[in-house]
Amino acid sequence: MRQNKAILTAAITGAVHVPSMSPYLPITPEQIVQQSVDACSAGAAIVHLHGRDPQTGEPSSDLELMRQVAAEIKARCDVIINISTGASQMMSTRERLSAVPELEPELASCNAGSMNFMLAGVLDLLPEDCPEWQSRYLGGTYDNVFSNTYQGMETYITTMQDHGTIPEFEVYDAGMINNILYFREKGILTCPVYLQFVLGIQGGLPATVENLVFLLNTAQRQLGADSFRWSAAAAGRHQFPIAAAALAMGGGARVGLEDNLYIQPHQLARSNAQQVEAIASVARVLGRDAATPEEARRLLGLKGADRVNF
């Protein structure tokens, strides 16, 4: 389904990059809040949130930390808050999902299948004196499967729907589209379908325009061309080419320091807002305007910020 308005998402901090990689990666609640508010001002309709331990920068599932961040962002701007259930792949299903029944956000990520989500390839980028947890965390993905079983996915979907939260399905490979179709055909998935194609992760589809077209065509055949909304993201240096292609193809685009620490080759992005401004300018060149949060709410069928629990 072509979106005349381009829904732009800022993935603010994530659970992939570690503080040693960039001084601009937001870690503390105050930094995450400020970068979210600034990203909204730059044109992001959605902010995709992960929790971080404010002392170490480690991925965190601390509920009160997420509540504090979400409430402060909501108090300062009207951006849609998308709470991640990806968190860290080392966490349990219960830990990853814990914020949804408590905070009842409008939107939450829902990984659409298991995969090898391998981050150990970036170990060479870390300084020798980095904190031990960073190399242990990244290296641990070499012998780990990012588990999203059918039972786990059903738990995510039903919990979200029970609390009025729309799942944003993170799709890393074509087979995951069949997983989504399974839950819809079984009558388990009954809410609007929103897909986030994520390319360039080691263990998922490579980040090429051909693969983005393949995923979109597969989703249109399997789910029905007019039955879902979609966006695309890509890791590292592939972020802006894939985001630009997604906008040209009529979808939304996700940028942010979760996916890519740079604004151009060899130049670190100083903020999420800088990346949002860049992709918003691409949208304008293509004749598309960035959707406001309220426009994005209507397009995605969200319940509204007045019905969240934070």
Q: What does this entry look like structurally?
A:
Helix 1 runs parallel beside helix 2 (63-76), helix 1 (29-42) packs parallel to helix 10 (272-285) and helix 7 packs parallel to helix 8. The chain is α/β, with parallel strands linked by helices and 310 residues long. The longest helix has 15 residues, at 209-223. Strands 2-3-6-7-8-9-10-11 form an eight-stranded parallel barrel, surrounded by eight helices. It has helices at residues 29-42, 63-76, 93-97, 99-103, 132-139, 150-162, 175-185, 209-223, 239-248, 272-285, 293-300, and strands spanning 5-6, 8-11, 46-49, 51-52, 59-60, 80-83, 107-111, 166-171, 193-199, 228-234, 252-255, 262-264, 267-268, 289-290. The chain is globular, with a radius of gyration of 18 Å. The model has no long low-confidence stretch (mean pLDDT 95). Strand 9 (193-199), helix 8 and strand 10 form a beta-alpha-beta unit. Helix content is 38%, strand content 17%. The two termini are 32 Å apart. It has eleven helices and 14 strands.
Helix content: 25-40%
Helical stretch count? 11
Structural class: alpha/beta
Widest beta sheet: strand line-up: 2-3-6-7-8-9-10-11
Cα end-to-end separation: 32 Å
Unreliable residue stretches = none
Mean pLDDT over all positions? 95
- Count all strands and give the number: 14
* Largest sheet composition: 8 strands, parallel, barrel
Strand content range = 15-25%
SSE arrangement, N to C: EEHEEEHEHHEHHEHEHEHEEEHEH
What gross morphology would you assign?
globular
TL;DR of this structure?
With 310 residues, the chain is an alpha/beta fold. It is 38% helix and 17% strand. The chain has an eight-stranded parallel beta barrel, surrounded by eight helices. The chain has a two-stranded parallel ribbon with strand order 1-14. Strands 4-5 form a two-stranded antiparallel ribbon.
